[in-house]
């Protein structure tokens, strides 16, 4: 099935700088989560019968991989610039009308009245999940679950143990520079039961989990800095200080992972939770 999607205009707040960040995400950073996508899709046997809804779909790489397995895919994100890049990836010249759809905002934006219920929901990007309040994310998950079949898996992802995530040092820089501004957006290590608690708040039933190695590998220090900045984790820090200060301190935090050949290599472990949609009898 050839993916297609609904065209929507970019928010008026889009700027050349923010579009550059979105392209850095698509071209440098998003691929770091490929092992996570592959592990989940393999475990859940994603294929021709899968009707997937992705929350925080970013620039569409996970959707593209699912569509390549034969799944029918839809995705939503709050970043219109990343969605524009997802359209470039998923909308060929000869697009048909029965494939992928993208929406800006919540899960309701990609639902057709009377359409078939989803049988898989994913929220892969841990920074997307952490960007809002736990209550807000739980609400989005609950609304998405209302569009899915009873028993459908809902996949949540987050950071693994802090001592196994080399990126945690760089993310602590973002938290320190942002303080006290935008405190809700500050990064903190994932707690052992964070994903389970989020699932339960959304009315979902936890049903298994796993860990996946997702190393961050970059061709050089410049690419590493651009990739990390593209995550959005440093936006509050840049507002609280300035771009130059953030870049300087981020480069220092990444220096221990600079190898002799000039590449940057940061081992990380991500954790995912599989929860199930429950229907009240």
Automatic annotation (TrEMBL):
Residues 1-22 are annotated as: Disordered. One of its GO terms (biological process) is methylation. It comes from Streptomyces eurocidicus. This is Methyltransferase type 11. Keywords: Methyltransferase, Transferase. Gene3D superfamilies: Vaccinia Virus protein VP39. InterPro entries: SAM-dependent_MTases_sf. The keyword Methyltransferase applies. Residues 1-10 have a biased composition (Basic residues). One of its GO terms (molecular function) is methyltransferase activity.
